Amino acid sequence: MGLKTSATAARARVEDGRAEAAAHLYRMAFAGALAAALMVAMALSNAAHAKAPPESFADLAERLLPAVVNIATTQTVDASRMPDMPQFPPGSPFEEFFKDFFERNQGQRPSRPRSAQSLGSGFIVDASGIVVTNNHVIAEADEIKVRLQDDTEYEATLIGKDPKTDVAVLSIDPGDRELPYVEFGASGALRVGDWVVAIGNPFGLGGTVTAGIVSARGRDIGQGPYDDFIQTDASINRGNSGGPLFNLDGQVVGINTAIFSQTGGSVGIGFAIASDLATGVVEQLREFGRTRRGWLGVRIQQVSPEIADSLGLDAARGALVADVTAEGPAEAAGIQPGDIITAFNGQTVDEMRTLPRIVAETRVGREVPVEVWRDGAAITVTATLGELEQAEEARLLTTSATPGPSDEGRVDSLGLGLATLTPQLREQYGITEEVEGVVVTEVDDTVDAADKGLREGDVIVEVAQDEVRSLEDVRRLVEDHRTNGKKTILLLVNRQGEQRFIPLRIDKG
User: Fold this and answer.
1) Which of 311, 337, 361, 440 has its CA 20 to 30 A from that of 251?
2) Pairing of strands 244-246, 195-200
3) Per-residue pLDDT for 2 more than 70?
4) Of 491, 443, 439, nearest to 465 (Cα)?
């Protein structure tokens, strides 16, 4: 009996173990299936967020094409006006060559004006007939015509243009017809790698659709002070200028403007004005016929690591104020040359080129907080913005003040020969009366000043953010810096009316 009971118990334990093992395997399988399901769900969610391309762009193109237009311009050119003969030194072989050429062709100049035509693209943003395009598409045009996809053609009127961002707004009168239109979207929501669609009029071929991805954002191509371009590999060619760049929701996220090409054709590097920049410009042009940008009244420069170190800033960031316009908003707010603007109206200024765009997009007359770095600490001032266009028309200038005693000599630790300004030195170097400081009369070839581009005739206005009016002022401030163990000193230099900060290394001298 005892043996049978033991065997039965043993079989029971084995069966229990098998059941537990099966249950464990089931739990593992369930957990694995659940994890796999979660991964699939996450992948589908990410794919949906990334907006994977459709099997075809046909539905999107069919919906958007009617709102994209061709723009033809005509400009009258006085063909009888040929350039004058260039001037060369007497006896030069070029002089004889061009003289013969101009004499031969003098009688062949056309007597009648001729018309020059060009083509571009645009898009309708309002059913009443408001069209957006590039400024360079319609610049200097005497006549502008807008042609729709169905070949209906309208005479266009220029509402306003903005050369700084290369945006223009036109108006056409469709009568009782309600025109198809598209809406702007948020270019800030784009990510590198997102799909985009370009529609335009390349080489005058009419409505053409191309697709690609966002290659980069925030590109500065040196076209203007507010550059904020989307780079795309969607095919963009001559004639696409002014046409829209769409996201997959059919919203305009850019205005196709430029290409990088050595051949004149698309090589996969095209640029579109970001809609976040263009939208405000379009609204102002529609409302006022011109732009009304915010204006702070400062001239700024990039903060280099050396400048940041010399001013005690933790990193090279912000925009360094090189000059403040007299009676401008910045001066009224107490902003000074040498301040580093690190935030404006709640937006961080990471680099110099960010500030002009933020200021320009801020409403004229608005009071805004401006955070600046001064004397080793962050402070906040309040500025009431003026209007940039009015300031440009008024040609507001900066001024300085008060002369000091006359002396001349050297500061060997900087490798500079310096002199207090005199009427003779002003005349010699072409320095205006309103500029005060110490003029550079000599720059050693082997010192940091030469490497940084300092040259004879430059005027040192400030040293270490203190005004200088004499050679002794400069020597004292440099010696104070050296005594305090600092190896770099910051100069504010005026060159032909333009001021710029230059950090110089202090040598043993």
Assistant:
1) 361
2) antiparallel
3) no
4) 491
Are 131 and 68 spatial neighbours (Cβ–Cβ below 8 Å)? no
Backbone region of residue 430 per phi and psi (left: phi > 0; alpha: psi in -120 to 50; beta: other values): left
CB 434 within 8 A of CB 462: no
User: For residues 157 and 191, is the Cβ–Cβ distance under 8 A?
Assistant: no
Q: What is the pLDDT of residue 402?
A: 37
* Nearby residues of 368 by Cβ (< 8 Å), 6 or more positions away: 344, 345, 362, 382, 383, 384, 385
Q: What is the pLDDT of residue 44?
A: 47
Q: Tell me the per-residue pLDDT of 102-127, one tens digit each, with 9 for 90 and over.
A: 565 555 555 566 666 788 999 999 99
Contact 186, 276 (CB under 8 A): yes
pLDDT bucket at 399, cuts 50 / 70 / 90: very low
- pLDDT for the residue 253: 98
Alpha carbons 349 and 298: distance in angstroms, whole number: 15
Collect all residues with Cβ–Cβ distance below 8 Å to 246 and sequence separation of at least 6. Answer: 60, 64, 182, 196, 197, 198, 199, 252, 253
Looking at residue 239, its amino acid is: G
Question: Residues 165, 281: contact at Cβ < 8 Å?
Answer: yes
pLDDT value for 424: 79
Beta partners for residue 408, in sequence order: 419
* Separation CA 55–CA 33 (nearest Å): 30
Instruction: Report the distance separating Cα 269 and Cα 257, nearest Å.
Output: 11
Helix (H, G, I), strand (E, B) or coil at 23: helix
Query: Known catalytic residues?
Result: 136, 166, 241
Structure tokens at 442: 């000599």
DSSP 430: T
Question: How much is the mean pLDDT over the chain?
Answer: 83
Question: What Cα–Cα distance (Å) separates residue 328 from each residue in 325, 333, 335, 354?
Answer: 5, 9, 10, 20
Minimal CA–CA distance to 374: which of 350, 323, 338, 325?
Answer: 338
Do the Cβ atoms of 376 and 320 come closer than 8 Å?
Answer: no
Tell me which residue of 294, 119, 223, 274 sits closest to 282, measured CA to CA. Answer: 274
More confident call, 28 vs 418? 418
pLDDT at position 259 is: 87
- pLDDT tens figures, 130-152: 999 999 999 889 999 999 999 99
Is the full-model pTM beyond 0.85? no
